[in-house]
Write a structure and sequence with these properties.
- This protein is mostly helical.
- It has a domain of 48 residues.
- It contains seven helices and no strands.
- It starts with a helix and ends in a 6-residue tail after the last helix.
- The model has no long low-confidence stretch (mean pLDDT 82).
Length: 135
C-alpha cells in the first residue's frame, strides 16, 4: 500500500508508519543528517525552542499562559498524536485565523520534514485571501 493510497483512504497510522520509514531511509542514506536542519549532522538542540518559548517577551507576544511549562515534544505526546500527525489541518488553522485566534506557524528553511516552499505559498495565500494580520 503506498502513501497516496493511505492518504486517500485516510489510513493515518499506516501513512505515518510509511512516512517514518521513508524519513529513516533518507536520513541513513544521507549520512545521518538532522531532519530539522539538513545542513547539520548532529541532534537538534531542543534547548533553542525551550528558551524561545520560556522567554517573557515571546510569552507576551503570543499571549502564552505563563503558568504552563513549554519545552520539546515528549514521547508520550508523540505517541498519543501518532495518527493526527499526518492529517491535513490547513482548513482548521485557516478557521482559527478567521476567528482571530493567535497562531504561530513555525517552519525552518532547512527542515527535511516540513516543505518550506509550500508553507510560504500557503501563508501568502491565506494572507491575501483574508483580513488576517501577520506579525
Amino acid at each position: 500500500m503506498n502513501a497516496t493510497y493511505q492518504e486517500r483512504i485516510r489510513s493515518w497510522r499506516d501513512l505515518h508508519d510509511t512516512f517514518e520509514n521513508v524519513l529513516d531511509f533518507i536520513v541513513e542514506r544521507a549520512g545521518n543528517i538532522n531532519v530539522y536542519d539538513i545542513t547539520k549532522y548532529h541532534d537538534y538542540p531542543d534547548i533553542l525552542i525551550e528558551n524561545y518559548l520560556k522567554n517573557p517577551n515571546t510569552q507576551d507576544l503570543w499571549k502564552l499562559n505563563k503558568e504552563l511549562t513549554y519545552n520539546h515534544q515528549s514521547e508520550n505526546v508523540y505517541e498519543a498524536m501518532f495518527e493526527d500527525f499526518m492529517k491535513p489541518y490547513v482548513s482548521l488553522v485557516e478557521d482559527l485565523l478567521k476567528r482571530k485566534v493567535h497562531v504561530l506557524v513555525y517552519n525552518g528553511q532547512n527542515d527535511l520534514i516540513v516543505e518550506t516552499p509550500g508553507t510560504f505559498k500557503w501563508v501568502e495565500r491565506v494572507h491575501h485571501d483574508s483580513a488576517v494580520q501577520f506579525r
